[in-house]
Specification:
- The complex is a heterodimer of chains A (596) and B (589).
- In chain A, 63% of the residues lie in helices and 10% in strands.
- Among the domains of chain A are: 164 residues, Up-down Bundle (ABC transporter transmembrane region fold), CATH 1.20.1560.10; 245 residues, P-loop containing nucleotide triphosphate hydrolases (Rossmann fold, 3-Layer(aba) Sandwich).
- By secondary structure, chain A is of the alpha/beta class.
- Chain A has a six-stranded mixed beta sheet, with helices on both faces. In chain A, strands 2-1-4-5 form a four-stranded antiparallel beta sheet, with helices on one face. In chain A, strands 7-8 form a two-stranded antiparallel sheet.
- With 589 residues, chain B is an alpha/beta fold.
- Chain B has 21 helices and ten strands.
- A six-stranded mixed beta sheet of chain B has the order 6-7-8-3-9-10, with helices on both faces.
- In chain B, helix 6 runs antiparallel to helix 11 and helix 19 packs across helix 20.
- The longest helix of chain B has 54 residues.
- Chain B starts with a helix and ends with a helix.
- The chains are: A alpha/beta (596), B alpha/beta (589).
- At the A-B interface, helix 3, helix 4, helix 5, helix 6 and helix 7 of A face helix 3, helix 4, helix 5, helix 6 and helix 8 of B.
């Protein structure tokens, strides 16, 4: 069975994405599906926007009426009663204005909330390969910066965006109805501006994407340098990294300036189109008045409405950059969202799903190729029996970790099948598979929090245990002694970055975490490399006290860890060879080194 | 004592007034001046458009209208508005990005002269925030605040004067709404500022969960705890949503209320102004003018309100940045540059982290060209001791001497270029292998070659298509643990160091390679003084000195045979490894 190797690298696809359709159509395509669940709120807020736009259109008419009818005829009673009407209109405006902001703002915030959940859900769905193929800094920046851009857009600009569009469309229809020819003349400059926008948009989008990317690489640079500061200090490389940062900073500066210059072109263009529209209306209006088709009063009113059309258009232009940024962010995020995990649970069983072998783990003709074509394992077959201890030895880079990772289904083989207790490992539900396998990674990862939180991480069964019960469980698993290495025991605080905790201590916690779950198969990938030998002996005793049926797979360089193994596999150059005795394994190590 | 007191005093608010953000702009006088001029001109031009229109209508009604004059006048103005608005925008972008770039460089430069302990204390995460979002806040301040404040003040003062000239009684009534708007703004923003702070905390929380889920992705998949992570995320995300709704609630009342106040002013104009017109105290033209002036007056007030918030945010960010920039400098560099022999003397060292004591009363000496091993259980303080020897950490008390001179008397640069350190955790940079190895500016090609050979990396590098120019991905995920460790060793050896410090170097390298490497070091670097933290007794039996550390204390020191006779703890460690020794001996036969 051939399995496609998924390419999870994100940066490549970025460049191809630059050819895009118009912003409005993209916005429509991206935003409308998101709003599907928000129909009710959208309708309410659009109604509210319509009402408040109507209020702002009516008020000048009412005031004009008061002036024409009552003030000029010195009827203060009329002024009073119409002021009452005006007050009512203002109250309606207050309410609709409030509703508009509350509902639309709510829509934006809920959309952001859902989108964030979606992204994070996807991040959890993707396999380890995705995280290995992309720079950590880049993933973090992509998720954080881009959702932040969306945040700004959804909580601030979206409402302006929508209400302005409604105002523009409403006023546009209104003036065309008022006078068809003059209306068209008034709208023509807007058409030209829109055309220019469409024309300039690809350029603007390209430069803003570039500036986003330089920002990403700059923060990557910062992270890399600051997190590895001790190495930089110890090797006198401060100036080198200062220069590298300066370079990244300078690149980001240039990209941001050109992106700023590009995205700021829209505002002046809309200001210009607004001026041109007023000029055109004035000139053509006067021409119409000359032909007795129009009056001066109407012309003044018309000019006001032209303003009502163009000022939201200008505001739209000012919201434009944030819309652009939001869409660019949305693009980058949807790149992640469209990735599919290639490590999915299978259900369609065939005769190949089951193996006749009684082995706990069986590799059958397994090959594995890393993305990029590096062969890690070539047609490997072997099996592991229940309750035995196996050692995997071989030179560094020979494929030991890859073999162990395949046992835990961190990857799927490119060819062949891995069987777990006689069933193709791909057919296990993750929860079921995980219960069987305990894997202590080469680089232990700890969460910020207490030792207790870390050893109970991912352990559903023990999570609710009170301190007393937990202590008892730890005692039963013979882990209490190890905990005494932490000054405040279970309550010792851990800061996962930085040097407050040593690698050996991290490995201890990872060990306790795995053993406490009592797995059927325990895989230790150089898991005790930085632990001193006295403590390691303790770990060995603990491992020996594990239930009889527990199968142990140990990758280690220290011979004393290996010598107690029931069986030894020698792994090198993509091949897994049965080494049998310790002596034989040692010979192979020496020879293998020579061969490669 | 007095020094710490001064620092405490400085930390107290108000003792040292933090320079205002506007002070930051002082360095950019010419470009800010240009921005001010462009803003004023662009505003002035924009305001002139209504005048042209009203004049056109007036001349038309009075009969001396000329279409050519109108078109020419209008087109020229429109063109200049276009040019000046765009210029203003460009200068705005340019100025803000320039300030941001300079501030970033300034922070980076400052960080780069701080000691390692400072970075650990401030935490890398906070420095990252300083360099990114805090600088962004300042950028927004420069790009928006400056021109907005100028044009708003320009408009408000101008319109107020016009209103007062037209009719001072009505003007005072209309202007009386401004304090109301001010009070509303004041209360809302005082609340909002707190909420913004909480919102930022929620975002930090979100980012922490995201970051951990990415760094711990393998573990999460091994434990099938994806849904647990999602639950954690949901919690943080819900908090962020709740806060954003609270902010929304404040804003959703703010804007309508301000609009309502404005409308009340309109009502006042209609009622009172209408009354004045009816009684003949005011002309109809002025009545109309009042209405249009009101519209012009409100917008800049709103802008000022929003900008005041931006300024407050930027000011807070600027203060955080200043904390970094004004942090006291490391002690002066000793300055002595001299070729080291390799004699090391450690005298009565104490090292405390806050309450916790990491090392107590450590004294020993190392002769030039000798080999010393440091051995002991997890968390004994071995790594910290090495950090002290490189000057990454400074002892709380006690002294360290190189060739009889205090470590502080040396130039840091000279010291670091002669003391090679192989860290326990593998740190790979997203650079080529060559740059990862030739990590210092003084490295010669022959040194690199020798280092690569010694670290047994030659074969591996030859299998790579781009050899030494292969780029190592971040975190070195394409390399095995042993390969990373050997690259770290090559990095230290490429300095051609006089002293080599190894921190648990052999942990990730198989016994066979380890032996070869140690032999290579002895052969290729015969003068080298070696201090090695290790777990494995078999490889250090021949060392001139073995130091046994336990829980921060030096339990024993001496040669292997001496310790076997004098230190029960050493014997225990030795026993725990005896079986290994047998095999290694057998293997050698």
């Amino acid at each position: 069975m051939k399995i496609n190797i998924m390419d999870y690298s994100l940066t490549k696809t970025d460049l191809e994405k630059e050819k895009q359709k118009g912003v409005l159509s993209t916005a429509w395509r991206r935003l409308v599906p998101l709003m599907a669940e928000e129909k009710r709120s959208v309708i309410i807020s659009i109604t509210a926007i319509l009402v408040s736009s109507a209020v702002s259109l009516i008020v000048p008419i009412v005031i004009a009426h008061i002036v024409d009818k009552y003030i000029t005829s010195k009827n203060f009673q009329g002024v009073l009663s119409f002021s009452g009407i005006l007050a009512v209109i203002f109250v309606v405006g207050l309410v609709s204005n409030y509703l508009q902001i509350v509902t639309m703002g709510g829509v934006g915030r809920r959309l952001l909330f859902n989108l964030r959940n979606k992204i994070f859900g996807k991040l959890q769905e993707l396999p380890v390969a995705f995280f290995n193929q992309n720079k950590t800094g880049d993933i973090i920046s992509r998720i954080n910066n881009d959702t932040d851009k969306l945040n700004q857009f959804f909580s601030q600009a979206l409402m302006q965006f929508l209400s302005n569009i409604i105002l523009i469309v409403g006023t546009g229809i209104f003036i065309v109805f008022l006078n068809f020819k003059l209306g068209l003349v008034a709208l023509l400059p807007a058409g030209i501006a829109l055309f220019l926008t469409k024309l300039l948009n690809p350029w603007v989008k390209r430069v803003s994407l570039r500036s986003l990317r330089t920002l990403g690489s700059m923060s990557g640079e910062i992270q890399e340098s600051i997190n590895n500061f001790k190495v930089i200090v110890a090797f006198n490389r401060l100036d080198y990294f200062r220069n590298k940062f300066r370079e990244a900073n300078e690149l980001n500066y240039r990209a941001s300036v050109s992106s700023g210059i590009a995205s700021n072109i829209f505002n002046p263009i809309y200001v210009l189109s607004s001026s041109l529209a007023q000029l055109a209306v004035l000139a053509y209006g006067i021409h119409l008045i000359d032909q007795n088709q129009f009056t001066v009063g109407l012309l003044i009113g018309f000019l006001l409405y032209v303003n009502n059309f163009y000022s939201p258009l200008r505001q739209l232009a000012s919201v434009w950059p944030s819309l652009q940024l939001a869409l660019a962010g949305l693009d980058r995020i949807s790149e992640v969202l469209t990735l599919e995990s290639n490590i999915k649970t299978r259900f369609k069983k065939t005769k190949k799903t089951f193996s006749s072998s009684k082995a706990v783990i069986q590799f059958k003709d397994v090959s594995f190729t890393y993305e990029g074509g590096k062969d890690a394992l070539k047609n490997v077959s072997f099996s592991l029996e229940e309750g035995k201890t196996y050692a995997l030895v071989g030179p560094t880079g020979g494929g030991k970790t890859t073999t162990a990772s395949l046992m835990a289904r961190l990857y799927d083989p490119s060819h062949g099948t891995v069987y777990l207790e006689g069933k193709d490992i791909r057919f296990y539900e993750p929860s079921e598979r995980v219960k069987k396998i305990g894997f202590i990674l080469q680089d232990p990862f700890l969460f910020n929090g207490t030792v207790r939180e870390n050893i109970l991480y991912g352990n559903e069964a023990f999570k609710e245990y009170k301190k007393g019960k937990l202590t008892q469980m730890l005692e039963e698993a013979h882990l209490t002694k190890l905990l005494s290495r932490f000054p405040q025991g279970l309550d010792t605080q851990i800061v996962s970055s930085g040097d407050s905790i040593s690698l050996g201590q991290k490995q201890l916690i990872a060990f306790i975490r795995a053993v406490l779950r009592n797995p059927d198969i325990l895989i230790l990938d150089e898991a005790t490399a930085n632990i001193d030998t006295v403590t390691e002996q303790l770990l060995e005793e603990i491992i020996n006290k594990l239930p009889k049926k527990t199968t142990k797979v140990i990758i280690a360089h220290r011979l004393n860890t290996i010598e107690n193994a029931d069986d030894i596999f020698f792994i090198n150059g993509g091949e897994v060879v049965h080494a049998g005795s310790m002596k034989n394994a040692m010979d192979m190590l020496l020879q293998g080194e020579r061969k490669s | 004592m007095s020094k710490t007191k001064v620092i405490q005093d400085n930390n107290k608010k108000g003792v040292l007034p933090t320079p205002s953000l506007f002070g930051l702009l002082g360095k950019y006088k010419s470009i800010i001046a240009l921005l001010v001029v462009l803003t004023v001109v662009a505003n002035e031009l924009s305001i002139s458009v209504p005048k042209i229109i009203s004049r056109a209508i007036d001349t038309y009604t009075s009969g001396n209208f000329s279409i050519t004059t109108l078109v020419i006048e209008f087109s020229v103005i429109a063109f200049f508005i276009f040019v000046f608005t765009y210029l203003q925008n460009i200068v705005q972008v340019y100025a803000s990005e320039k300030v941001a770039r300079d501030v970033r460089n300034e922070i980076a430069t400052k960080i780069s002269v701080q000691p390692y302990s400072y970075i650990e204390k401030v935490t890398p995460a906070k420095l990252l925030t300083n360099l990114t979002s805090d600088v962004d806040a300042i950028k927004v301040f420069v790009s928006m605040a400056v021109s907005s404040v100028i044009s708003s003040v320009f408009l408000i003062v101008g319109v107020s004067v016009l209103l007062l000239i037209t009719d001072w009684k009505l003007a005072l009534i209309v202007l009386s709404i401004t304090p109301f708007i001010g009070v509303v703004f004041f209360f809302v923003f005082r609340k909002v500022r707190k909420l913004f702070k909480r919102a930022q905390e929620a975002i930090d929380w979100l980012n922490k969960v995201i970051g951990e889920s990415i760094l711990g992705s393998a573990l999460i998949r091994l434990l099938n705890s994806e849904s647990y992570e999602s639950k954690k995320f949901l919690e943080a995300n819900t908090e962020a949503k709740t806060i954003s709704f609270e902010i929304l609630r404040l804003f959703s009342s703010l804007i309508p209320v301000i609009n309502f106040f404005t409308n009340l002013a309109t009502l006042a104009i209609v009622l009172l102004g209408g009354h004045y017109v009816i009684t003949g105290a005011m002309s109809l033209g002025n009545f109309t003018a009042f209405n249009s002036y009101l519209a012009i007056l409100i917008f800049p007030i709103l802008i000022l309100g929003f900008i005041s918030n931006l300024i407050a945010q930027a000011q807070a960010s600027y203060e955080r940045i200043l904390q970094i920039l004004n942090a006291p400098m490391e002690k002066k560099d000793g300055g002595i540059k001299k070729v080291l022999q390799g004699d090391i003397e450690v005298k009565n060292i104490m090292l405390n982290f806050g309450e916790k004591s990491a090392l107590r009363g450590i004294s020993f000496s190392v002769k030039a060209g000798s080999k010393t091993a440091i051995i002991g259980p997890t968390a004994a303080g071995k790594t910290q001791l090495l950090y002290l020897l490189t000057g990454l950490l400074e002892p709380t008390s006690g002294k360290i001497f190189f060739d009889g001179r205090n470590i502080n008397e040396y130039s840091k640069e000279s010291l670091h270029s002669q003391v090679g350190f192989v860290f326990q955790d593998s740190v790979m940079f997203n650079l080529s292998l060559r740059e990862n190895i030739a990590f210092s500016n003084t490295v010669k090609d022959e040194y690199i070659e020798k280092a690569i050979k010694t670290a047994e990396l030659e074969d591996y590098i030859n299998t790579l298509p781009n050899k030494l120019d292969t780029v190592v991905s971040e975190r070195g995920t394409s390399l095995s643990g042993g390969q990373k460790q050997r690259i770290m060793l090559a990095r230290a050896l490429a300095l051609n160091p006089k002293i080599l410090l190894l921190d648990d170097f052999t942990a990730r390298v198989d016994a066979n390679t380890e032996r070869k490497i140690l032999n290579n070091i002895a052969k290729n670097y015969p003068q080298l003084t070696l201090v090695s933290v290790t777990q494995k007794i078999s490889s250090i039996e021949s060392y001139g000195q073995i130091i046994l550390l336990m829980e921060g204390e030096l339990l024993a020191k001496g040669k292997h045979e001496e310790l076997l006779n004098s230190s029960p703890e050493y014997v225990q460690i030795f026993q725990s490894q005896r079986s290994t020794n047998q095999y290694e001996l057998k293997d050698e036969n």
